[in-house]
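Ops channel
N.P.: pipeline sanity check, posting one input/output pair.
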């Protein structure tokens, strides 16, 4: 995008923002047109934030918001603020907590259920310790619980091998697939337009991209284009992204708690994270779905379009071994269901929010790396401000940093 084009988008966007503040509708024709490809958590929230700021937005998805192949397509996702020393994510979680309730759908089955998060460390707990000053400053209460107290408070958990226990009070579970559908609904209610369609980038010339090509041969023309394609981002942009977004196969299991028992429900048991050689985590039985157990270890490379989503015997055995050790009453609990999903890993585990280096009107969003869902309202807001007003994004999210860093630094990614 040349300077005049950037300025056009910035100017066009300020008109509706001013109008919004004064409660007036945006003047027709002045609002920038934005096409967003991908209606997972990142794309749906970005589209919603753009339309709330007065842009004319078309949202496209090949299979629909929160579909079964998408990384956002699972039943639940954790929201927590412990992020080691990474302050930027705690700030995003704080903002996300303010924005998630704007999607609330039903009081009977809310999108967010607060459970707290219990961090069980078999060894070094510096990931949590380094987060404490940031959490205190940003208003997220956290306490260390002495082992004897933890045993009394959580008799369902066998704490053998655990050296330290921390409770993060403000943490919980988000209903993932439902949230994507709710975001699309809120987007349409706010005046956005959604279509189920596969989209390809249009031709690029002179620093900008022209109309998207859809599978049926039609085109979508806009002033700016956003690609929030999750694990497909590398395939859509093989040169710029390629294997910098690396999808890995991840398995999630739901086990049946004993009949009539509430010991494995929210209120009795927080979300738990077991830091051993492998990191396992789980969510108490929410909305009757079952007791969730997941292994955070990166699995094999995975094709999000054609990959079979059948749980492996090895994965089930690992989850059962963890249950037998940590939740002995559930050692023989029946497996109720499973999800095979994929993490869309960036090389350093950080998000990607940046312009395409060869087209100023193209934005690439992704790299959720197993922890992006909770952040999506804040990411959408950040992206909308960057696209419409030229606001800067953190250096940690820019494509440039991928030339320098290779090693992932965070320990827990969900
Ligand atoms: C098992 C598992 C557990 C996780 N746990 C957590 C957690 O506890 N907490 C947390 O915060 N995060 C968690 N995550 C990570 C989080 O879910 C993802 O980072 C996030 O959902 C990514 O969202 P996205 O919108 O980038 O991608 P997606 O949800 O994959 O969305 C991309 C969308 O783009 C569409 N698309 C792709 N290409 C095209 C195209 N060419 N044309 C049209 N449409 C296209 C797809 O259909 C898809 O709907 C977890 C992920 C997994 C897999």
């Amino acid at each position: 995008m040349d300077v005049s084009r950037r300025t056009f988008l910035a100017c066009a966007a300020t008109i509706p923002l001013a109008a919004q503040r004064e409660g007036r509708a945006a003047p027709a024709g002045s609002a920038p047109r934005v096409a967003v490809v991908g209606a997972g958590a990142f794309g749906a929230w970005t589209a919603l934030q753009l339309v709330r700021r007065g842009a004319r937005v078309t949202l496209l998805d090949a299979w629909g918001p929160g579909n079964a192949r998408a990384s956002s397509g699972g039943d639940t996702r954790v929201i927590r603020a412990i992020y080691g020393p990474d302050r930027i994510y705690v700030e995003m979680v704080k903002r996300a907590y303010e924005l998630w309730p704007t999607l609330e759908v039903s009081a009977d089955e809310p999108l967010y259920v607060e459970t707290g998060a219990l961090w069980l460390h078999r060894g070094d707990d510096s990931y949590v310790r380094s987060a404490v000053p940031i959490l205190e400053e940003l208003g997220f209460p956290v306490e260390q619980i002495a082992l004897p107290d933890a045993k009394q408070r959580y008799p369902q958990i066998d704490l053998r091998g655990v050296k330290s226990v921390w409770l993060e009070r403000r943490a919980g579970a988000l209903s993932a697939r439902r949230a994507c559908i709710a975001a699309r609904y809120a987007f349409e209610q706010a005046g956005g337009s959604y279509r189920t369609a596969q989209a390809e980038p249009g031709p690029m010339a002179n620093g900008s991209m022209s109309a998207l090509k859809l599978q049926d041969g039609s085109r979508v023309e806009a002033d700016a284009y956003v690609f929030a394609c999750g694990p497909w981002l590398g395939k859509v942009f093989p040169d710029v992204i390629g294997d910098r977004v690396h999808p890995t196969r991840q398995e999630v299991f739901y086990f049946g708690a004993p009949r009539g028992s509430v010991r494995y429900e929210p209120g009795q048991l927080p979300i738990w994270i077991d830091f051993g050689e492998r990191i396992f985590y789980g969510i108490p039985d929410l909305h009757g779905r079952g007791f969730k157990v997941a292994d955070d270890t990166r699995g094999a490379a995975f094709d999000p379009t054609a990959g079979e989503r059948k749980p492996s015997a090895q994965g089930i055995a690992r989850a059962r071994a963890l249950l037998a050790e940590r939740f002995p009453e559930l050692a023989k609990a029946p497996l109720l269901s499973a999800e095979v999903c994929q993490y869309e890993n960036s090389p350093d585990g950080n998000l990607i929010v940046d312009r395409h280096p060869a087209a100023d009107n193209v934005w690439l969003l992704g790299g959720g790396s197993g922890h992006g869902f909770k952040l999506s309202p804040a990411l959408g807001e950040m992206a909308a401000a960057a696209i419409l007003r030229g606001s800067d994004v953190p250096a940690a999210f820019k494509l440039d940093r991928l030339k320098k860093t290779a090693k992932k630094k965070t320990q827990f990614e969900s």
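N.P.: looks fine end to end. Residues 37-43, 60-63, 67, 70-72, 74, 77-78, 198-199, 228-232, 236, 250, 252, 294, 341-343, 366, 368, 370-374, 414 surround flavin-adenine dinucleotide (CB under 6 Å).
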